[in-house]
Specification:
Blueprint (H helix, E strand, L loop, with lengths): L11 E4 L3 H11 L3 H4 L11 H18 L3 E7 L5 E11 L4 E8 L7 H17 L4 E7 L3 H9 L3 E11 L4 E10 H6 L6
Parallel strand pairs: 4-5
Antiparallel strand pairs: 1-2, 2-3, 3-4, 5-7, 6-7
Length: 190
């Protein structure tokens, strides 16, 4: 039995969008091409108004499909936005889903983001009762690949030159973690 909240860690929590405040922050991040990749399909600089419309679309999609869950990742002490974590494209019959962890505040890379990833996996495996979670990471984002590996993900597939970005072809890496491996790895209570 879990004694802790599904959404709160020691350093970060998974929460809802604060539409006005978060849109301004995320609009600034949209100028970073590494972050913009995770805004898919937009992948371009966006204004706060465009970000608000995007939030509305995401929330609408979440409510209609029951196959998408998205959380704002925030530092507990400062209530500062670090990025977003989404669990989407859920296949209930297969118990699998895709994960996206978009980190706009690169100062938080490391333990806060690792904790957010673990919280997301606890939610996916224990609340949603999924068995497999995957994430696609381009080669130009080694930070995300490192965090995934620390959390117990294993790279399963590497697609060579699958993405054209910033005047260059990049490889895409597909990482996966299984519920049993996550639970056995002791990541639940770290």
């Amino acid at each position: 039995m879990i004694e802790k909240s599904l959404y709160d860690g020691e350093m970060v929590f998974l929460g809802a969008f604060e539409r006005e405040k978060d849109a301004i922050i995320e609009a600034a991040w949209s100028y970073d091409p590494h972050y913009a990749y995770y805004l898919s399909p937009e992948m371009r600089p966006m204004s706060p108004e465009e970000i608000k419309k995007r939030y509305d679309r995401l929330i609408e999609r979440m409510e209609e499909s029951e196959k998408n869950f998205i959380f704002a990742v925030k530092l507990i002490q400062e209530n500062r936005l670090l990025g977003f974590l989404s669990i989407d494209r859920i296949s209930w019959s297969h118990g699998s889903a895709d994960l996206t962890l978009a980190v706009g505040d690169r100062r938080a890379m490391g333990e806060p983001i690792l904790e957010a990833l673990r919280l997301g996996l606890v939610y996916a495996f224990l609340e949603l009762n999924l068995f497999r979670v995957t994430m696609c990471v381009p080669d130009f984002d080694p930070f995300s690949a490192e965090i995934l590996e620390k959390a117990g993900f294993v790279r399963e597939i590497k697609q060579r030159e699958a993405l054209y970005f910033n005047n260059r072809f990049w490889d895409l890496n597909f990482y996966a973690i299984l519920k049993d491996d996550f639970m056995r790895g002791g990541n639940l209570h770290e």
